[in-house]
Design goal:
The complex is a heterodimer of chains A (293) and B (275).
Chain A lengths: L2 E10 L14 E9 L3 E5 L6 H8 L7 E6 L2 E3 L6 H10 E4 L12 H12 L3 H14 L15 H13 L5 E5 L7 H18 L2 E5 L3 H4 L4 E6 L2 E6 L1 H5 L2 H6 L6 H11 L11 H19 L1
Parallel strand pairs in A: 3-8, 3-9, 6-7, 7-8
Antiparallel strand pairs in A: 1-2, 1-4, 4-5, 9-10
Helix pairs in contact in A: 3-4, 3-5, 4-5, 5-6, 10-11
Chain B lengths: L15 H4 L2 H17 L3 H18 L3 H8 L3 H14 L8 E3 L2 E3 L1 H27 L3 H12 L9 H31 L9 H7 L1 H24 L18 H23 L7
Antiparallel strand pairs in B: 1-2
The chains are: A alpha/beta (293), B mainly alpha (275).
Chain lengths: 293, 275
């Protein structure tokens, strides 16, 4: 498969207000790659560098050292070619945390049009893209609504539509579900999964909800600016103790089975799904009963 | 309580004035102001009054709304009237004189004309701009009218963008203010008692967090806009491209006839008082 994003030893250090480069880098020597069509979750506690990583991937920040490859284009650490920058942002879209702070226009339709307008797309084509994008996120009937009258989840879906309308190959969700209520989170997750499965868009989801990360194809754990783990959710979450060491909790299902195993029961360590966990426990209870009989 | 604030009340509709291109409406509003100040004689004023009334009827905005729009400026009107009444020195005998106050016939005419000018001006501009034009198309209209200034490198697009963002964030910031006020009230702040200075001071704990959050929002928004490839309208297209229709040209023609009529009346109809 084709690699959409590849990083080679990228590091990033923030500069403080005196122009001094911070001694502790936010990200150091990160090398990873994301394949086209993949659904990747990035986990890490606060200050682990996961948001910095996201900002590097669409060049809001340029790495202090190392090389990035985005859709085959090489980006050097001191690259400042504006056109290249826009090319990258066209390829890698981004949805942020606060739904209120990323909507530009007062009317839904106008907001979705903002990206394509900036790309210089013909009005007819823009209208087509708006209709498609709103359809994808299930907001068609809100096309002419005022943006401020929507709920958090709806605003976030409009923000997603605004990114889809630019036809990116990859979308980064930078804690886009963090400020939403459970219903809003569910709406956004559904939209994300639909984009990945039906439109084949690569998704990079930065989050601190384990249950959300468990739904991805692959989980990357970032700790102290380095990649700590990079594997399938089952593999990653089976390391309950290691996760705890970097300030993360495994999903509740995994956690429960982990405790049962600590008590001496023979249960699998790589279960991440609540239903699957329930089945395992039912089986366990039955076999215990048989033993006692 | 803050939720009741509406800015530039727009009344959606489908009248002829609603359907005009916003750029044309900006131009017409300016032309109308010029016309109002060109009018100098009783008959010219009568024509302006008649046309303003026609505008109200055509726009299908209720008369009550239009009259309510004048209410906030009533003191300005009264002030101008008083100044004109007492300060204008006419030829001939004063109509009324007491101590050093002398009122002349010219003063009365001038006071009435000035008051009418201000009233017509507010009525006409609000009909053209605020009542019949949504904030969004008004922004587009102003951008369109100012676009020749791009030739001398004025950032017209950025200016329009700023206006649109300001409009977009009014409800957000109003909500935020409400939240902060409640938070401060919960901590025992008192906004509704004491003198003017005490009340003004009580606003500081609202304004400081409001500004901090506004700056944070601005920062977030600018990053989000960059991510959506904003570059000051360079090479950008518009979803709804403004297009002049026949209606716009007709309205411009009518406006031209209207201004010419006023100039002619000023010049040739010499019956009655004239400024």
């Amino acid at each position: 498969m084709e690699k959409i994003i590849e990083t080679k030893d990228i590091s990033y250090s923030y500069t403080d207000s005196d122009g001094q480069i911070s001694i502790v880098p936010a990200l150091s020597n990160v090398s990873l790659s994301v394949e086209s069509g993949e659904y990747v979750a990035v986990l890490g506690h606060n200050g682990s560098g996961k948001s910095t990583l996201a900002k590097l991937l669409n060049l809001i920040l340029t790495p202090t050292s190392g090389t990035l490859y985005i859709d085959g284009k090489e980006i050097d650490h001191n690259d400042d070619d504006i056109d290249k920058l826009y090319d990258v942002r066209k390829t890698v879209g981004m949805v942020f945390q606060n739904p209120d702070n990323q909507l530009v226009a007062t009317v839904v339709e106008e907001d979705v049009a903002f990206g394509p307008e900036n790309l210089g797309i013909e009005p007819k084509e823009i209208q087509k893209r708006i209709d498609e994008a709103l359809e994808t996120v299930g907001m068609t009937e809100y096309a002419n609504h005022a943006t401020h009258s929507l709920s958090g989840g709806q605003k976030q879906r409009i923000a997603i539509a605004g990114v889809i309308a630019m036809k990116p190959k990859c979308i980064i969700f930078d804690e886009s579900t963090a400020m939403l209520d459970p219903l809003g989170r569910k709406e956004v997750m559904r939209a994300m999964e639909r984009l990945n499965r039906e439109e084949g868009i690569t998704i990079i989801h930065i989050t601190h909800y384990m249950e959300e990360a468990a739904r991805a194809d692959r989980v990357i754990i970032v700790n102290d600016g380095e990649v700590y783990m990079d594997a399938t959710p089952r593999e990653v979450f089976s390391h309950v103790e290691e996760l705890r060491a970097v300030g993360l909790e495994a999903p509740q299902a995994t956690e429960l089975l982990h405790r049962l195993r600590a008590l001496g029961y023979d249960v699998p360590r790589d279960c991440i799904d609540a239903d699957e966990c329930a089945e395992i426990i039912v089986k366990l209870i039955k076999s215990e009963k048989e033993k006692n009989v | 309580m803050l939720k009741d604030i509406t800015l530039g009340q727009y009344f959606p509709g489908n009248s002829v004035i609603h359907r005009l291109d916003p750029r044309m409406k900006v131009i017409l509003a300016i032309a109308y102001i010029v016309a109002i100040f060109l009018a100098k004689s009783v008959f010219a004023f009568a024509l302006v009054a008649l046309t303003t009334l026609m505008l109200v009827i055509i726009s299908r905005i209720s008369v009550a709304v239009v009259l309510r729009g004048i209410k906030p400026i009533i003191y300005v009107v009264i002030f101008t009237m008083i100044i004109n009444l007492f300060m204008i020195k006419g030829e001939g005998e004063p109509l009324f004189s007491l101590w050093r106050i002398r009122i002349y016939e010219e003063g009365i005419y001038r006071a009435v004309f000035m008051a009418l000018r201000v009233i017509f001006l507010i009525m006409a501009t609000s009909i053209f701009l605020t009542y019949t034009t949504s904030p969004f198309s008004l922004t587009a209209g102003i951008e369109g009218v100012l676009s020749p200034l791009k030739l001398i490198r004025l950032p017209v697009h950025d200016f329009a963008m700023m206006m649109m963002i300001a409009l977009r964030f009014i409800p957000t910031l109003v909500e935020e203010t409400d939240k902060i006020m409640n938070a401060q009230k919960a901590r025992g702040a008192d906004f509704s008692s004491g003198g003017l200075i005490k009340r003004a001071k009580a606003l500081i704990p609202i304004l400081v967090p409001l500004f901090v959050s506004a700056f944070n929002r601005a920062n977030d928004l600018s990053v989000a806009m960059e991510c959506r490839c904003y570059r000051s309208g360079k090479g950008a297209t518009k979803l709804h491209k403004l297009k002049f229709s026949a209606l716009d040209f007709v309205s411009l023609l009518i406006m031209a006839i209207f201004i010419t009529a006023i100039v002619l009346i000023n010049k040739y109809v010499t019956v009655g008082f004239s400024l």
